[in-house]
Every structure is written in C-alpha cells, then in structure tokens.
Amino acid sequence: MATLDAKIPEGPIKDKWTNHKNKINLVNPANKRLIDVIVVGTGLAGGSASASLAEMGYNVKSFCFQDSPRRAHSIAAQGGINAAKNYQNDGDSVYRLFYDTVKGGDYRSREANVYRLAEVSANIIDQCVAQGVPFAREYGGLLDNRSFGGVLVSRTFYAKGQTGQQLLLGAYSAMNRQIGKGKIKMYNRHEMLELVKVDGKARGIIARNLVTGEIERHSAHAVVVASGGYGNVFFLSTNAMGSNVTAAWRVHKKGAYFANPCYTQIHPTCIPRSGDYQSKLTLMSESLRNDGRIWVPKNKEDVQAIRDKKLKPTAISEENRDYYLERRYPAFGNLVPRDVASRAAKERCDAGYGVNKTGEAVYLDFSAAIKRYGTEKALISGEKGASEARIIELGEAVIEAKYGNLFQMYEKIVDENPYKTPMMIYPAVHYTMGGVWVDYNLMTTIPGCYAAGEANFSDHGANRLGASALMQGLADGYFVLPYTIGDYLSNDIRTGEISTDTPEFEEAETAVKTRIEGFMNNKGTKSVDHFHKQLGKVMWNKVGMARNEQGLKEAITEIQEIRAAFRKEVLIPGTAAEMNPELEKALRVDDFLELGELFAKDALERTESCGGHFREESTEIGGPQDGEAKRDDENFAFVSAWEYKGEPSDAVLHKEQLEFNDIELKQRSYK
Amino acid sequence: MKVTLKVWRQKSASDKGKIETYKLDNVEDHMSFLEMMDILNEQLILEGQIPVAFDHDCREGICGMCSMHINGEPHGPDRGVTTCQLHMRMFNDGDTIYIEPFRAKGFPVIKDLVVDRSAFDRIQHAGGFISVPTSGNTQDANATPIPKPDADKAFDAAACIGCGACVASCKNASAMLFVSAKVSQFSLLPQGKVEAKRRVLNMVEQMDKEGFGNCSNTGSCEVECPKGISLENIARMNREYLKASVSSSE
After folding, report:
1. What is the mean pLDDT of residues A213-235?
2. Same domain, B62 and B123
3. Least packed by Cβ within 10 Å: which of A296, A556, A606, B243?
C-alpha cells in the first residue's frame, strides 16, 4: 500500500524550496534526450509543463481532447493572476500572499506548497511579459494591477477580462516553439482513457483518437496529469462542455489517492440560469466586484413588483436597498472571498429576496462606479461643471475599457444592457480545489505519475482566492514540475525506451476496449445527457452550497441508482470506430457517476464547515460571528486522501495531518 | 417558436455529404444556438438516428472551438459573437435556417459540421512565438515600459481566438487576418521585435503552403470576426513582410 508522505523539505519555510532544488538529483542534458514524458492536458499547467520539459530536453508527448492545445479551458479565465510584486507599494510581500492564500483556503492547505507558490509568483509575471503577453498597462507604460476578493492589496495582473486567454496563448506559443523543433509531439483530439503501470510505475497511457476512434498505446518514463477540474459533475457549471474528470479518475482507480473531493468552489457572480435546456453557466469575473455593489431590495413588496415586471431596479431608492455584503462584512464589503459571497447570496434568496422569476438572482450594480469614474474623468479632462449625462457617459467609457467584453457577454446572453440596469447574478459551480493527492514534488501515490494545476489538490485548501488558479497552473508547469520530475527521472537514464508491446499495455488496452464495447452494445433508450442532468440535480441540491447529513446520505444512494440505471439504459448511437461525441460523453459521465459518490462520501465524513464546504450542522451560534461557518481544527485539520478499493462506497480514507508552523490557526473573519 | 433546419450531414472526410431537413417546434428565445442544436440531437438520438457532430467547448465565446456557417455567415447573423453566443432571439418563428461547416481548402471536413483547423496550429509552429526560455529568469516585468497605446493595440490583436471565421468568410479563403493578428501582436511589443523578420517570413510561407488564398481587401473577415480583429493588422503584416523581404538577411 502506498504511504502518505508529503515529502516536505526540512528547514525554515522560506528556505525549503531553494534547499530542495539544491539537493535533488538532476538529469544531464544528453540523458534527457533518452527520456519521454507524457503530459495530459494543455491548459496553463499542462501547456507550461510541456513547453518547459521539452525545452529542458525531454521528449514530450502532449495530449488534448480539443482540436488544438489553445482551446483548453484555462482560456476562459477572466479576471487576473496574482503575484507578490508589490508594484503598488501597498505592503504586499511573498509572506502576505502566502498568508492570504492559506487564510483564504480556510487553513486546509499545505503551508510549504503555498509558500512556494507565493515565492515563484513574481517570476511568472516576468516570464509572461518576456513571452509577449499583453498585460494591462498604465499610461506610464508600467503594469497595472487590480484587487480581488479576500485580500487588502492590489496584486492582480490582468489583460482586460481575458487574462486566462492571454496567459494560455503565451504557454501555447512556448509549446509551438518546441513543437516546431520536434521536441513536443502533439496529439490533438485524443483522450486519455487509462493509465498503464509497469512494475508499479506509471509508464504510459491508453488514448482514444477522437477522429478515427482508434485505441492507441503511448509509453513514457513519467506521466503528468494536468487535465483540470471536475466541476462538470454538477452538469451545469462554468466549465467547458468537455471538461471532465476522466484522466484524474483513471489514475485514481490505478492507485493514486484522491484528495478532498468535496472542496468545490461555487462562484458568486455568474449569470443565473434561464431554463431546463441550459447547457452551461457563464461566469462574470470577480474583478467586477472591484466596482460593482451587490444588493437586493429591502422590502418584499419591491421584490414581488420586480418579479412581476412592474418595477425597475433603478427605481428603487438607496434606503430601500440592502447591500448585504457591505452590511454583514464591513471590512471587506463586496470583496469578501467567493465562498462567503456565495453563501450570502443564497441566504438572501432563500429568505425570499431573489430578483428574477426563479427567485435565484441578486443585483450587481455599477451605477455608483460609473458616477465616480465619470466625475474623476471629467476633472482630469478639464470639463468643469459637466452635466450628469456627460458624467455618466464618461464613466461608462471607463467601465467599458475595464470590463467591456464581460458587459458584452452579459448583454448577449440576458438581452439587457448592464450599463443602464444592474446585472443579475447568482452563484454557480466554478472550480474544484480537491483533486489527485500529490506530495511536495507534485507526484501522486503512483511512482512516476504526477498531477498539476487544478487536477491536483495542493494549494487552495477548502477555498481558492480569485486570481490564484492561473498562478498555480503556471507555477506548477513552468517552475515546479520541471525541477521535481528530474529527481525521479534521474533513475531512468539507463531504462531505454518503454515498449508498448507488453502484457501491461495489452491488458490496459483490452480493458478500455471492453468498456467501450459495453456501451456500444447497450442498446438502451436514453441519452447520456439525461443521466448527466439527473446527477447534476442531485449534486446541486444535496452536495451544493449547503450540505447536511441526511441530504448527503440520500445523495449517495441516489447517485448509486443513477449510475446503475445509466449503465443499463444509456443509448450510444453510431459506432466506436468513428468520431462519436456521444461515446466521448458517456465515458466521461461514467467516471463522474463514480466521482460524485466519493464526493458526497467525503462531504459526509467532514462534519465541520470549512471554505467551500458548508455543513449546516456546523455554524457559529451567537456572538459577532453568528450564523457563519464553523471550522473544527481539533478534529479536521487534515487532508482527506481516498484510496480506491473497487466501488466508491468502499474507498478507504487516509489522513494527511496539516501542520501550521508559520501561520496561526484563526477564525477566518472578513468582518 | 418553430424552426426548420437544413443541416449539412457528412459521415466522414471521404463521404460526399448532403443537406438534411429537420423540424424543431419547442425552441425558446433565450436558448443559445448550440442549446438548440442540443435539442435537435436529443431528438435524433431518441429517434434512433445519428446526432449531428459539431465542435464546441467553452460555450462562452473564448475557446474558438465552435464554428458553423449559419445562413451563409460564419457564426451566424449576429455581430461580434461566436456561434455559441448566438441566441435564438435573432431568429423568427417559422424561419428556415441553413447550417453548414466552414468551407475552405485549408479546413477539410472531418464529419458533419466539424472541420480540421490544424493548419492554423502549423502556421503558429512556424513562428508564432518569442524565443524566450521558460526559466523565469528574464528581466523584471517592469524593466521595459511599453507605451499604453502599443500595449492596447497588441492586446487587441492578441484577442484572436483562432476560430477560422475569417477564412470561412473570405472568397479567397485567405488566412491573412489570423496570421496578421499574431504578427502584429509581437511586432508591436519590444520583446517581439528581435525576431520580427524571421517570424513574418516563416509564418507567411507556412500560410501559403497550407493552401490559404491571398487577401484582396474585401474586408469580409473583419465584419465576421467575432473578436473585432481589425484589417489594420493585415496592413501591418504587409509592411513587416515587405520590410523583411527587402532588408538584408539576419
């Protein structure tokens, strides 16, 4: 049985990474040419890892299910990327970024990993600028920053509302350079369906060519899983339609522990759902909370009038609005962390103050910011005594320059002009902090199998702060993995090429083919989406923003039933020997149906509330924190790492105790 | 609302393909175009037919995966949107909608509405990068100030999502808008100037090899581009190309 050793280096926290790098084994450049590495996924983590490893000299084989590596879902990240540059001279430092991230994660992340993340963050910005990433700049030509939730400094670098796109295109361009040189062999439209282990080590994958349907064997000396998060277990999420857990779940089933599956981020500012046909939800960047104020009407009569379309939100006077985040959290106001903001929105809507027909929406209002910016702009441009209309015009132009693409996106979806009337928003599933368990070197419990980016669990604890996902993806891929993987691969310089003509590859390939044939011969009566939507409903209602024992127990049974029905009744048209999107979906949903159960089991086991995991049984009663989430450090300051044992219900829990030597465990207050 | 769909069906690259007609009578205004396609596919699956294959992923207009020629226009009748952001409120009850794949020599059809755009990747392999190591040991990000207008223009060019609508809309199936966006982004930034000559020559050479046509300035690409990439970029690329061609080699 694998052991749970996080392999955290000795020494003071600020020296750990440097010391570790100085001590680990290296592979000489000539030998790197003899070593192959498979990277699954081409988002920020996978793309940057592929480019870096290839540049160092390894032979990289990169896989993505999309038609090009540039399509990976990191592309959709909007708001920004954190880095402890302290360009704004507002007291930022590596320590403060480290502290904010650990606190933001509700003290459920590993100190040493988070410190390293903060430490390399500044290099990421240098690296990206050198690659030609067009970050926002001030008139003086220097980089601009903005602020994100849960922090008191401005350390977020951005490129309008398309930061993820620009960073990913940076990593993609670095990949292109290596693809052009032949150092990366790119496999577009390929999906990893199995991990191959030889003598206990990860030595390859089985992948399906999504164009021809062919099942292929690919070998390597190490396998990196950078396949993103599993938010689509909820069916509706801000993830891309193809985002899936398959690669991560397959390595889990082959022996990698899966950590903290119940830690999910429900993002507070998404466009509310409009109907049953809805296929996905769209995020409105957290950066909007820099300038937008969140409110619902104070009076229920106004709520009703709005729902009946008899009253416009702009007609409600200031004193009849409840800016509930500013009221409840005066210190952080509209910039509280995501989990706090989401729960507060749910609380108001559950109490009957939701402002759309479904009762699940609150307002995000820019009118105050438009006036403030307009006044400032009028003064700068010497327009003394500008009319109110002129001020609004100027203010709208400032807002457009900052968030234009987001406002356009909103208008296209909702068919309302957010410059003139407040946006309607509601929380939606966005990011998963849980993932494959990794040690300090990002290695899973399978030797030679690594997990990076959102696919691993390591840096965000129970709640991720805004603009930290991009930072972690690039940190893992550019600066961590390239060092740590060498330590392992230094033992493989004499191994030679791994043959795919072995019983292990044969067995893995047969297993994949049998699974696919099972689905093709099923001749059921219902579509894959039918079951995926059922799963999503159970997850949202019982394993969503608020969880309790009874609901979680019901969820586990219901997911088991849906899984059994799915395997019996699903219908896959066409054949497996061609492009078949329904088959692709079926294989992903099959894995979601197993993960979903483990997810609920993990949530049931953790009877405390922490970060994105809110147990209704565990809240503060009385005092200034009345009604807030209540953490239980005495019993739950550990990482839950689950070992696969056949069925999700049989999974065995291993605990990695979290030690906090540099940060004091405190109530996470944003009041 | 009710709509009639005329959809291009083609089993594989070697199949001839033809238009099939489908009727949908439960379409709502607020649906996105792709959600309408989901409903069509659900219907086809339950009838025992093969659903329509189409590319899509993020469904929020940024990944560039969705394509489709809708009523003769890439990404359909709305402006500044991709197909996934197109909503059914742009159509009327009783409309007949023609849905075809992007058509260009450089984009062969794989199946139904899915085309192969890997030519775009190959053009990027030829020079769509700045040759900087990924070590992070470069100069400080603020060491070289970049005038805001240049940075903004570089950003506007970099906003290209690589969907291929420019090619699909062009009567010459030219990829000039796509290629010039990348060339412009880098040529506007000091970091990209070092390799500017080699970049533009290599990328244009690869573009020609892939079978994309030349630009004859009709400007349809700019109109159909969901991200508003400007024709100015083509002019800039032509200048860069000319400069690189007439000046001495490196």
Report:
1. 98
2. no
3. B243
Percent over 90 (pLDDT), chain B: 97
CATH number at residue B96: 3.10.20.30
B131 and B84 in a common domain = no
pLDDT in tens, B162-220: 999 999 999 999 999 999 999 999 999 999 999 999 999 999 999 999 999 999 999 99
Q: Which residues of A touch B148 (CB under 8 A)?
A: 137-139, 141
| Among A51, A135, A277, beta carbon nearest to B39 | A277
Interface probe with B: pick from A279, A414, A480, most Cβ of B within 10 Å? A279
Cα torsion A125, A131, A135, A141 to 10°: value is 90
Token pair for A550: 């009874």
Please check whether residues B121 and B214 belong to one and the same domain.
yes
Domain boundary among the residues B110, B135, B160 is at B110
Q: How many domains does chain B have?
A: 2
The residue among B110, B140, B167 that closes a domain is: B110
Length of chain A: 671
Beta bridge partners of A157: A81
Q: Is the pLDDT of residue A2 over 50?
A: no
Same domain assignment for residues B91 and B187: no
**A139 → closest Cβ in B78, B124, B148:** B148
Tell me which of 1.10.150.20, 1.20.58.100, 1.10.150.530, 1.10.10.10 is the CATH number of domain A510-638.
Answer: 1.20.58.100
Note whether B157 and B238 are same-domain residues. yes
Contact A420, A194 (CB under 8 A): no
Inspect the interface and report whether the beta carbons of A141 and B57 lie closer than 8 Å.
no
pLDDT tens digits for A74-133?
Answer: 999 998 999 999 999 999 999 999 999 999 999 999 999 999 999 999 999 999 999 999
Residue B150 to chain A, least CA–CA distance (Å): 9
Q: What angle do CA A245, A246, A250 make, to 5 degrees?
A: 120
Q: How far is residue A505's CA from residue A206's CA, in Å, rounded to a whole number?
A: 8
Contact flag A134-B151 (C-beta cutoff 8 Å): yes
pLDDT per residue as tens digits for the range A20-78: 999 999 999 999 999 999 999 999 999 999 999 999 999 999 999 999 999 999 999 99
Distance between alpha carbon A367 and the CA centroid of its chain, in Å? 31
